[in-house]
Amino acid sequence: YYEARTKFRTLATQAGLELKSFEVVPASGYGDEYIMDVAVLRPTKGPNRGSVVHTSGVHGVEGYGGSGIQCYLLDQIRQAREEGRLQKIDKTLVFVHAVNPYGMAHYRRFNEEN
């Protein structure tokens, strides 16, 4: 979870997306943080014509597959921005990473309250 989170945050920043973090489970003081990160790409031109939301880790353990897809898409956005191909986005793209970070971190389907 921690490695996947770092990669997601790095790629979202490199792609130029807005990034916000939300503590889902308060830290215990033992170095464990359970944070849900949200990266947003707003329309680049014209009015907003809707939203596309991609989540990962709703049930925790499957978050690694979803995180991989998100990281791939963020890298594609970064490349498109660098090549000047990111000029006609008319929808808001939202990537929610690790909806259930506790389950993802502990390879469980459930959250900290089971």
UniProtKB/TrEMBL annotation:
<protein>
    <recommendedName>
        <fullName>DUF2817 domain-containing protein</fullName>
    </recommendedName>
</protein>
<dbReference type="InterPro" id="IPR021259">
    <property type="entry name" value="DUF2817"/>
</dbReference>
<dbReference type="Pfam" id="PF10994">
    <property type="entry name" value="DUF2817"/>
</dbReference>
